[in-house]
Structures are given as structure tokens and as C-alpha cells.
Amino acid sequence: MDWQRSLRGRLAARRVPKKSEQELKDEEMELFTKYYMEWKGGRKSSNTSYMNIPRFYYRLPAEDEVLLQKLREESRAVFLQRKSRELLDNEELQNLWFLLDKHQTSPMIGEEAMINYENFLKVGEKAGPKCKQFFTAKIFAKLLHNDPYGRISIMQFFNYVMRKGLVEPSRGKNGTFPQSSSACLT
What we know:
Blueprint: H1 2-14, H2 21-46, H3 66-85, H4 90-102, E1 105-109, E2 112-116, H5 117-127, H6 137-143, E3 151-153, H7 154-176
Antiparallel strand pairs: 1-2, 2-3
Helix pairs in contact: 3-7, 4-5
Keywords: Cytoplasm
Subcellular location: Cytoplasm
Protein name: Protein phosphatase 2 regulatory subunit B''gamma
């Protein structure tokens, strides 16, 4: 009867002196500390990306810090110059209109010229690097309405480019007004 022997062996093993209440608590605390440190240590080493977040706020230089104020003014001027170079001038706008007109897709709706996405991308490649920002799928989708052929109006697209070209200089001019550049006009 193997089961009798196994039961007696089990009972004999049970009779081993029990650990005291304090020993059980100490063992539990030891295991808890061990597993907690593994969890905390493993998590800390795998996710340190928060340490690489760049600083995004710098206080404004005080009135007595002349060098820092000059540096701020100069860097702002360089930034605004770079932004103004990205804007389209009259010649580039005329070239864009010529390319759009050349690549229009038939049939016309009334007197309004239309362009499909394929030709839209071709114009984007030929228009140059300054115009590249306007030839995206997102902008095409914004201007796409209820055309059965999946086209957009050339005039609407050109007006969109013109409006964006007028907004950017306005932002730049507004940015030059306040001396503190605290994002509020006084």
C-alpha cells in the first residue's frame, strides 16, 4: 500500500517544527524586498528616456545681462530671416501657377480647371524645394470635395498657397513686436 506510506511520510514531514511568526514575517519581508528591488531596478534601467528630454524653457535674460539679451535678439533675427527665405516670391508663384495650368486634368467643371493627385505630385516635383511643403496628401485631401474624378480645383489650391504665404510673414512680424518675446502683444 504505497498510498499509506506516502501519507505517513507526508505527516512526518509536517511535524517538522513550524517557524515562528517573526521568522515568517522576516522571510516574507526579505522576499518582498528582493522582488521589489528587481522590479524597480529592471524598470529603471530599461526606461531612462525621461532623462533625455531636452530642456524647452529658458528664463528671459534680466536687464543687466546685456550679452544674453543681444544673443537672444540675434538668434531671433536669424530665425526670422530663415523663415522669410522659405516663403515664395512672385516669380515662384507665377511658375507654380504655370505648372498647375500645364498639368490640369480634363474634363473641366464650368470654367474651373482641376488637377488629379498624380499630376499634383508631378507639379510638386517640378515646382522646387520651397513648394514641396504644399504638395502633400494631407493638403490634397483637405481640398478634395465632391469631384467624381477625385480632383481638386487648381484655383482653390493656388489660393491656399497664397493664404499660407500671407500668414507666415504676419507671424514673423508679430514675433518682432514685443521686446521680451513673451508671446503677448502689448
